[in-house]
Amino acid sequence: MANEYATVNDRKYRHEQTLNIPHRIPNEMPNNKPNITMKKITPKKGSAPKVFIGAIFALSLLFLVIYGKVETSTIYKEVSEANRQLEELQSEKNRMQVEIEAEMSLKNVEDYAENVLGLKKLDKSQIEYIQIQTDDVVEIPEEEENIFIKIKNTFNEFMEYILG
């Protein structure tokens, strides 16, 4: 019976084959530990080029992202500069419009007409009033169209209807 037990790591385990006992699952296994081993994985052939290509791909993606950010920043600066120029030109336009309105005031126009052009104000004796009859209505008769002009107009109307 000395062979009934085997010693592993200073613990005794029962060897069931030497006792010729059918395999039973004990209710409680306090000392049984699973046998876990690590397998040594050797690198596969060709994995170094794949890693190298993957690294180049990742670096190129990083470069593209950075390049996109730089281009976005450049375009944003151009847009903000264009907006600044637009605001400056709009304020210049408003200033010029105010200046033109000041130049075109009635007093300035009268001064220009009298001093530069030599015009004078009208006297009441120079004004003549005329009367116009408002009851007269002028009617223009429609021109008579020949058959070819009617066909042409009908075709043009049809094409306008079709084409929208």
- The total beta strand count reads 2
Approximate shape = elongated
Question: Structural class of the helices, strands and pairings?
Answer: mainly alpha
- Provide the residue-averaged pLDDT: 80
Structural features, described:
- The chain is mostly helical and 164 residues long.
- 54% of the residues lie in helices and 5% in strands.
- It has helices spanning 16-19, 47-103, 106-115, 147-163, and strands spanning 5-8, 11-14.
- A two-stranded antiparallel ribbon has the order 1-2.
- The chain is elongated.
Label this structure with key terms.
single chain; about 160 residues; mainly alpha; two-stranded antiparallel sheet; 4 helices; 2 strands; about 5% strand; disordered N terminus
Quick synopsis:
The protein is mainly α and 164 residues long.
Topology:
Elements: E1 5-8, E2 11-14, H1 16-19, H2 47-103, H3 106-115, H4 147-163
